[in-house]
Amino acid sequence: MKEMSIDLETYSDVNITKCGAYKYAESDEFEILLFGVSVDGGPVKVYDLACGDTIPKEILAALSDENVTKWAFNASFERICLSK
């Protein structure tokens, strides 16, 4: 794996526009609902975490692998959410 594109759908009881991304993700009610990923330009796979899907170990490992380039439309938001 050389690169991956990710997109998240999330929920929080905190209003992100009023409080910002950090407070949004720090809420006890925060959760990642959907995790979408494309590896090396391949088809998009969506993991429905809210319904019990789990992200494969190789995808989780790639998130912290410095040799894998990560792409996201709003990368700073995804980074904050994934850090939680």
Structural descriptors:
84 residues; alpha+beta; four-stranded mixed sheet
Write the layout of secondary structure elements.
Elements: E1 3-11, H1 16-19, H2 21-26, E2 31-39, E3 45-48, H3 57-63, E4 69-71, H4 75-83
Account of the protein in words:
There is one protein chain. The chain is an alpha+beta fold and 84 residues long. The protein has one domain. It is 31% helix and 30% strand. The chain has four helices and four strands; from the N terminus they run E-H-H-E-E-H-E-H. It has a four-stranded mixed beta sheet. The radius of gyration is 13 Å and the shape is globular.
Low-confidence stretches: none
Based on helices, strands and strand pairing, what is the structural class? Answer: alpha+beta
Strand line-up of the largest beta sheet = 3-2-1-4
Beginning-to-end CA distance, first to last residue: 24 Å
What is the subunit arrangement here? single chain
* Residues in helix, %: 25-40%
What is the compact description of this entry?
With 84 residues, the chain is an alpha+beta fold. It contains 4 helices and 4 strands. The protein has one domain (3-83).
